[in-house]
Write a structure and sequence with these properties.
By secondary structure, the chain is an alpha+beta fold. It has 26 helices and seven strands. It has a five-stranded mixed beta sheet. Strands 1-7 form a two-stranded antiparallel sheet.
Amino acid sequence: MNVLNMLKSIFLIALSFSLTLSTAANAAVSPLPLLVEQCLQLRAPIENIQGHKLIAADENIDNNTQLINDAFALETSLLSLFNIKDRLNYYKSFSLPHFYQESVLQCQLHLADLMSDTLNSPWVTRFIDSLKQQQAKLEPELIQLTARLVTLKAEQLNLTDKSKLHTAQATVKQGLRTQELTLQFTEADCQLPIETRQQPVNSDNAKTHPNKTFNQSIATYLIRQKDPGCQKLVWQAYQGRAKKKNEHALNRIYQLRHNQARLAQFQDHTHLVLNKQYLSTPELVKTFLDSQTSLAPTPPWQLGNKLAQSKRSVTDILSSASLLSHIQGRAETLGFRFEIITDDIHRVWYRERLLGDIFVSSATRTKTHTLRVPVLGRQYGQIQFLVKANYKNISDKTRFISEYASALSSLSSSSHYYLLNTLSETQDTSAIGQLWLNMYLSEGIISPVEINSRESTMSLFSKQLKIFRSKVALNFYSATNKQAYVSLEDEFTHSFSLLWDKSEDYPYNFYAIVTSGPLYYQQMWQESLAEYIYLATKHCKNQHDVYKSLLVNEGFKPFELRLSALIGDPVDPLSLIKRIKDGFSFSEIVYQDQYDLTCTI
């Protein structure tokens, strides 16, 4: 076996660990062999455009016509690859028979190779050079496309590093999946009385040892154990359970990311990835995280007891059909129109523009899947929306609306290019429109949670845990002398009041440290900014203009300009962080009379 094939085999094994396995109807898997065959027979996109004459980078032109033709040629050559990739991701969400799994992985590798070959081809390199050379003359849509292509090309890893990275990520994922915990109690008082113990769900979930060994479900133990010291002892041991297995893999990921940053002339991975974000430096991210840090309702090891003592917020039971009808009614006020083809097929329009179809199916868990991304002038969107029969509590309803907002957000894209419809200017602004839409659709349907309710406690706790983990990830990928936080132990205390004294275990208990890394903060940042925009614009008479600005953006304006029009200046990162922390005031609502959106109170 030559080196290239060996690396591909390693990459294949790594990806196999990452296969998402969930319950689904077996009937949905039947078209998969045909899809895989189409995938493996797909020719390199670059073959379809090699003969297309490119405009020279230094050629003087007065309009965008030739560059638009070049861009359309590239789009035409790549669209089949993108469509197969999206459909493959859809099938991966099902529980695939073992004999399909290797074929799916081979297909993934093939698509990745084709995309890499295309981005690194001389034709695409010259095309990007031409776009950059003529940037002052380009129309806004092509300016945005240039930025996406440059980013994609810069983020490419060679096959060797890609194989090492995915292998290490798979190792970390497997290490965290284990529930195995061996703990010798030094104090008899930390053992639960025999009559209160619960046997593990299966013998693989815990190692059983005689006498004073922990051999129970972690959640069960923490709820049944009333001694805070014992709760903390077991919780901390559980958080560090994967350290021994994952330390080497996590260090390898750090080194790969660090080497990539150094090649790009950045001092570390944190500075490299943040350089392309709205919060573009570790200092800005730290300022935001610090502004959102507050005491959680409980330390992590006492969460189970706290939730058990809290009551759920009261809410009515709604069927999926009733809930969907309420949401569609709310969406219609923005200009959406829903054509019910059958009970299971809903055609979605925005005014007179057809966006695509949403296929509604019954399931045990609410979820959306993108089957086909809309591309203006080429194809309409297709979304599968999986729903439960009834929705009994606020968290279920919240998820339903969030997933439907995701579906409408995906269908709202208005570009002629797939990359502009799927990639945003920055990762940390990519979901702002969707989150705003989620809040808009929730108005009048989801009641505010009650103070001290189970939902309120969980929400406040989850936010502080994410804030703390964001600080851990920010530090982990920073050079030692450039770390934003001097003492992560103090940061844990700031959020949870008590000390977690094993700081060496901090990076080893959440998988996002190897997937999101320093960008883990972005969920909290986008939720905070989207909420601020919603509060600042909810009194606007023309809500459809807010929707069009955030989600359609027909003029392809940069996010900063749209944000300025929506909430007024200043919108630089530091000012936004302060405005979010201070909260929205009525005086700012009054100022909206001066906006282009002509907000009317």
